[in-house]
Amino acid sequence: MITPAFELSQDPDFLTVIIRVPYARASEFDVYFEGQDFKFYAKPYFLRQLTLPGRIVEDGREKASYNTDKGTFTIRLPKEVPGQYFEGLDMLTSLLAPKKSRSAKPLVEEIAASAELSEGEEDNFDWEIEQTPYEESAESTLLPQYCYGFGNLRSGVFQRLQDELSDVIDVKNPDQTPVDERREKRLAAEAAKFDPDHYLADFFEDEAIQQVLKYKPWWVDAHKKMRALQGEGRQERDTLTLVVFSEEEREQMRKFTNKSYLLDKRSRHRVYLGLIDILLAYCYEIRVNEGDKNVESPWNIRKLSATLCWLESFTGIHDVLVSFGRRVLCYPLHRHFALVTRAVNDAVVILQLGK
């Protein structure tokens, strides 16, 4: 069965589900909905279950139509409580998650989902690569293992990847390098990399930089819409979508694996700081390329984010901003402090837009 492409929208009284099924027969489909559950079947498409953020009801006002040109079903479903706002309709991954995984309190990481992903990835693995048996030395069992990654939940990931580390991260031997030592080495590498001549050239010959500073990325218009609606009523705000995902982005969200993590308050704080660090690098990259991605974009984002490049674990927002500023003045093509402050302002705007 194929999970179809779909999107959801709403008005004060109805939830609208648009499902794209170009190879299905319009006369052969089934729809089930009750409470927060919605299911759809039209061979070979099967939307097993959407767990909605609000309740819908069958009262005779429901309606379904099929567009033969676009191959889409449009289904309008009455809300049980008229005027209720359904939050998170664009969070497709969350809507596709089984109900119990959404409501149950996570006690451990759900490793089953990652196991399924690994099995899928193994299909593309080249089994003809020459391999040698792995021999664990007696010394390695005595060395401490330091954690890193999302929520500092990972260790031992890079033990057998020393030859490939330079293509992924800048820190050497991260499994035996504590956080404080990683930070010291990062600061030393930044100090060694800083080029005063490059900085001064960008400072005085800044025509290209002034051009990208004038660029208006997607979040500028979205933020203007949000501010214009601040004086409007709740109903007008609820019916307007500030950010519209592309079909490629929606497809990505449908394929994301759902995971739950047990994070204490301290770990969550560090995760949020890491997110801001990556978001700052993203804002810089979008602006300097004026919204166009290229083959250097992943390198730029990785290099500007100490979270990605040095497995940094920040404890305060001040440290995040200083780290980002230093790396902008050391690594990318355009090294101007105005780009640092503009990226910070851009990140603030994106965060103000909400989830």
From TrEMBL:
Belongs to the SHQ1 family. It is found in: Cytoplasm, Cytosol; Nucleus, Nucleoplasm. Gene3D superfamilies: 2.60.40.790. It comes from the Eukaryota. This is Protein SHQ1 homolog. SUPFAM superfamilies: HSP20-like chaperones. Its main location: cytoplasm. GO terms for cellular component: cytosol; nucleoplasm. It holds the Pfam family SHQ1. InterPro entries: CS_dom, HSP20-like_chaperone, Shq1, SHQ1-like_CS, Shq1_C. Keywords: Cytoplasm, Nucleus. PANTHER family: PROTEIN SHQ1 HOMOLOG (PTHR12967:SF0). GO terms for biological process: box H/ACA snoRNP assembly. Residues 1-90 form the CS domain. One of its GO terms (molecular function) is unfolded protein binding.
